[in-house]
Amino acid sequence: MRLSGAAQRLTVLVGESDQYRHRPLYTEIVHRAHRMGLAGASVFRGIEGFGASSLIHTSRLLSLSEDLPVAVVIVDAEPRITAFVAELDELVTEGLVIVDEVRVHRYVGRGAPEGSG
């Protein structure tokens, strides 16, 4: 797969302990993105943050927080991101979904021939 030029970045910000049908929400998002054939998805665990609850969650040793912020980031072409955002309506009940216009300089998937790109 080759993706370059104009694209969109989808960022889903949720809590680490958020669940969907007894599994981590971020895992469900990644697996659905994979099933829909999106270019890729990465999950980033935050070390500190707060959201709608205004409670600060932190990974510092003396903190009791186990609900750290998590960001799922997906980059793909606009029509594919738009279709995936509709999937998120069912999944994300509390969190933030951000879509940005981005420019991809190079993406070559597995099995690309030498010198392509």
The helix content, as a percent range, equals: 10-25%
Structural classification: alpha+beta
β-strand percent reads 35-45%
Q: What is the CA-atom radius of gyration, in angstroms?
A: 16 Å
**Shape-level CATH architecture:** 2-Layer Sandwich
Mean pLDDT over the full residue set:
85
CATH class wording: Alpha Beta
Q: How large is the count of helical segments? A: 2
Q: Any idea how many domains?
A: 1
Largest sheet: 4 strands, antiparallel
Pfam families: DUF190 (PF02641)
Protein name: DUF190 domain-containing protein
InterPro entries: N-reg_PII-like_a/b, N-reg_PII/ATP_PRibTrfase_C, UPF0166
Family: Belongs to the UPF0166 family.
Break the fold down into its secondary structure elements and pairings:
Blueprint: E1 5-15, E2 19-20, E3 23-24, H1 25-35, E4 41-45, E5 48-49, E6 57-58, E7 69-76, H2 78-91, E8 96-104
Antiparallel strand pairs: 1-7, 1-8, 2-3, 4-7, 5-6
What would your notes on this structure say?
- With 117 residues, the protein is an alpha+beta fold.
- The protein has a single domain (5-104), classed as Alpha-Beta Plaits, CATH 3.30.70.120.
- It has 2 helices and 8 strands.
- A 4-stranded antiparallel beta sheet has the order 4-7-1-8, with helices on one face. Strands 2-3 form a two-stranded antiparallel ribbon.
- A hairpin with a 2-residue loop joins strand 2 and strand 3.
- The radius of gyration is 16 Å and the shape is globular.
- The model has no long low-confidence stretch (mean pLDDT 85).
Fill in the keyword field for this structure.
117 residues; alpha+beta; Alpha-Beta Plaits; four-stranded antiparallel β-sheet; two-stranded antiparallel sheet
